[in-house]
Amino acid sequence: MSVQLMPTSPNRSGTPAATAPESREPGAGVTPGSGASPATAPVSDDPQQSLAARRRRRFGVRSVLRLLGAVATLLSLIVCCASAVFWARGLMAAEGAVARYGTGFISVSSTDGVVVTVIQRILFADADAEQSYREWADPYGAVPWNHWRFYVLNDTNATPAMPDAVAGFSFQRLSGQGGRRVGLRGVTWSRWMLQVPHWAIILVTCVAPAVRLYRSHRVRRDRLEQGLCLKCGFAMGDVYHSCPVCGERRPVST
Ligand SMILES: [Zn+2]
Question: What pTM did the predictor assign?
Fold first, then answer.
């Protein structure tokens, strides 16, 4: 009986310092001397502990990276599918969305097999110029200039495809003086326009999902050949009908 009160873990030196934080094994949350049962003694081949070790590993750096990779692949797949849908829709009618903040905006339009992104900024020589511009653009004070504003664009106000595109690609940087015709001074605008064809977006965004699909197919095939658990890779041999680690059932052998 008294043996169980000792810190008997084989990988520990048995010094009093073993009660320091590193002794906080999962399942050993009881204080020493409070009648620690044999079940709480950390033994390396204890299935309880191997489960805890796996849980700890699940939150390691590699698993975080793997999770980020999975999320990125999923986003890539979503963009890929969305691009195909908007490609088809854009052949019938242009559509898009614009986000405005202050006097600038970012818009994305889908039309005629391409996506046109526009970023426009209006620069002012001084505060008076900005004030007179806002009074001209918003005479009733209805625009919440200091908030983000989102609007949907349709066939009448979406950005049309750029005329001088090469294989659907185009880029333009334009700038100029603004508001002269209406008597505004000190107003300059600058605009970036980028046009990318839908097929290019689909081509780029389908790579990660395709690679992932191929890899998972290969891993599954290899595990099947080697008699490993299809889900977690545990070597089941001829012993188990279902995986003792994850519970996955052995596939019916042919
Ligand atoms: Zn398994």
Answer: 0.66
